Description:
The chain is an alpha+beta fold. The chain has helices at 23-33, 52-59, 117-127, 205-210, and strands spanning 3-10, 37-41, 63-65, 73-76, 80-89, 92-99, 106-112, 141-147, 164-166, 186-191, 194-201, 216-222.
Amino acid sequence: xxxxxxxxxxxxxxxxxxxxxxxxxxxxxxxxxxxxxxxxxxxxxxxxxxxxxxxxxxxxxxxxxxxxxxxxxxxxxxxxxxxxxxxxxxxxxxxxxxxxxxxxxxxxxxxxxxxxxxxxxxxxxxxxxxxxxxxxxxxxxxxxxxxxxxxxxxxxxxxxxxxxxxxxxxxxxxxxxxxxxxxxxxxxxxxxxxxxxxxxxxxxxxxxxxxxxxxxxxxxxxxxxxxxxxxxxxxxxxxxxxxxxxx
Length: 247
């Protein structure tokens, strides 16, 4: 079993509601939470103050993933492997990676979804398809996080899949809009032997006054699914003693 802290954070290109840069605030929010893994959406530009590399340096966690503006990426205390970017259509993507805390393999899916009902339905169908969550190569614990748009209509929601469960913490999970959160646009889901044991929405005064969407932090436990075989009966192999030969 492994326990670690995960954050899902839509950076909005590291700009506040007024369109001004808030790079130091973004870095400060991540540093203060002491997280092991950050799933970032809508990262900044590939160069300059809002680059993924500059954010990594400010936070003190290695960066993984594309440096392209608007993409999804990771900051992680533990090494990530097998990164792959999968288009979901309509300019949205899912970035897949493998995370290995305490020698346990955890699959990661970091994504953004469209707000339009028809486009969203198509994207969720691809997310649940054989290339991603429906794949037989996903036997381990899986964390699905990102910007799920504004699912007021419930069209194509991941929650309809019985194998996928939304993190139960925190109890109140609304994080959008930041100034007065009403519903959960940023979300974390689980598939397989992984559960949330705690969590919170980062709702500091600075965050609520500056950000579009509040970050979500969850404390996660993975569960060991290996089963021990219990031997009830012992079979003793006692070879027969040969009969003495009398002469």
